[in-house]
Amino acid sequence: MEKETADNYVKAGKIAAEVREASRDIVTAGKGYMEIVEKIEKMIRDSGGEPAFPVNISVNDIAAHHTPTKNDTTIVKDNDIVKIDVGVHVDGYIADTAVTVNLNKDYIDLVKAAESALEEAIKVVKPGVLLSDVSTVIEETIKGFGYKPIDNLTGHGLNRFDLHTEPTVPNVSFASDYTLKENQVIAIEPFATDGGGHVKDSENVFIFGLIEKKPVRNAEARKIIDFADSLNGLPFAERWLPIDSLFKIRLALRELRERGVLHDYYVLREAKGGMVSQAEHTLIVKDKPIIITK
Ligand code: MN
Ligand code: MN
User: From the candidates 21, 46, 106, 164, which is the catalytic residue?
Assistant: First the structure.
């Protein structure tokens, strides 16, 4: 890996770690989702990074991909289990990290399960190690706490302006002879639950990404394509769009989704309504891995 690339990853990681830790204080009962995510996204930009995706605030049985809509008035409630998932990029080099801010004292171990699984998994990481060994450690650690890993949410490789590349890092044991390679950048993200151990799509989509540009007549749709293109394919939220009318935004988004221009990141819910915790770090694979979001 070139020095400039490594420096950008380290810088993105440092910002991501700072805002992740700050979010432990930012998330409190009674505060609006919108205020929380806007504060975190502003911190990222003020620190010299860019959000690599809209800050996700996924609460209780919502596992991932939730971010407030333009007119959202939802507030954090007592006893909520709040996952804050943050992506920061510097010149396209992405750090992806998450924390569970737990306001529910009945689920302290659920959070520990995800955090310990991440910690134990990182201990295994080095070039040449079987990826399946990393996954097995995650599964066994979470089960050791009496919870289930979510088997259809995974960690992933990262590349420049690319949030999900090879390898996929499952949270459960699997059969493969794939080994980790030196200088691969990977995000490891265990999810633990007291539910069934799977997520399913909800009916909501608040995060989108450009699949391919196509000619469109609608002026707002064209604006959205240009906006998405300016992010180099990284995901965006409805609330980021430079269009005032929510009605026009929704109409244009629907057209773009139907035409296959935009990818939908459906809000993911634990299929049996279980509570969900998450922990995540981004690492550069080396004999002594660099945890850029530590
Ligand atoms: Mn993440
Ligand atoms: Mn991730």
Answer: 164
According to the 3-state scheme, what is the secondary structure of 89-144?
EECCEEEEEEEEEECCHHHHHHHHHHHHHHHHHHHHCCCCCEHHHHHHHHHHHHHH
* Nearby residues of 196 by Cβ (< 8 Å), 6 or more positions away: 148, 270, 271, 272, 274
Active site residue 120: no
User: What is the model's pLDDT at position 64?
Assistant: 98
Residues with CB under 5 A from ligand 1 (ion): 85, 96, 98, 280
| Residues of the chain where predicted confidence (pLDDT) is lower than 70 | none
Residue among 192, 204, 199 nearest 265 (CA): 204
- pLDDT at site 237: 98
| CA distance linking residue 276 with residue 294, whole number of Å | 22
Check residue 201 and give its pLDDT.
97
Residue 229 sits in a domain of what CATH number?
1.10.10.10
pLDDT for position 16: 98
Q: Per residue in 100-144, pLDDT tens?
A: 999 999 999 999 999 999 999 999 999 999 999 999 999 999 999
For residue 226, what is the DSSP state?
H
Domain limits for position 155:
3-201+269-291
User: What's the 99 CA to ligand 2 centre distance in angstroms?
Assistant: 12
- Tell me if 287 sits within 8 A of 124, measured CB to CB: no
Same domain assignment for residues 114 and 149: yes
Ligand 2 centroid distance, CA of 222 (Å)? 29
**Is the same domain home to 231 and 173?**
no
Please confirm, yes or no, whether 156 is among the known catalytic residues. yes
Residues 117 and 166 in one domain: yes
